[in-house]
């Protein structure tokens, strides 16, 4: 029989907060950064509007910063799922180390 998912109240708030931060970072780095990179590199600017050396060099840094900023504001279902998976694995990790 499948046990019901534990509620947030069954876990400490620090565990939940750490899981939330980890889930947001994972989703941001795995999905949002590549998307932002593709959008940035697919611009068809030519001539004086073409990306310069600084934009080419610092573009990836801006992608990461923008992904971090968006992840603090977005509430995606994927983040909730990853967070729940992390929280569910936390007790099994404690059992192994005990």
Question: Concise description?
Answer:
The protein is an all-alpha fold and 98 residues long. The protein has a domain at 28-40 and 52-98. The chain contains three helices and no strands.
Gross geometry? elongated
Q: How much helical structure, as a percent, in the residues?
A: over 70%
Strand portion, in percent? under 5%
Count the DSSP helices.
3
Order of helices and strands: HHH
Cα end-to-end separation: 26 Å
The helix-and-strand class reads mainly alpha
Poorly predicted ranges: 1-9
Return the average pLDDT rounded to an integer.
81
Q: Describe the sheet with the most strands.
A: none
Output the radius of gyration: 19 Å
The total strand number stands at 0
Task: Name a few traits of the molecule.
single chain, 98 residues, mainly alpha, 72% helix, elongated, disordered N terminus
Task: Provide an overview of this structure.
By secondary structure, the chain is an all-alpha fold. It has a domain of 60 residues. 72% of the residues lie in helices and 0% in strands. Helix 1 runs antiparallel to helix 2 and helix 1 crosses helix 3. 13% of the residues are buried. The N terminus is likely disordered.
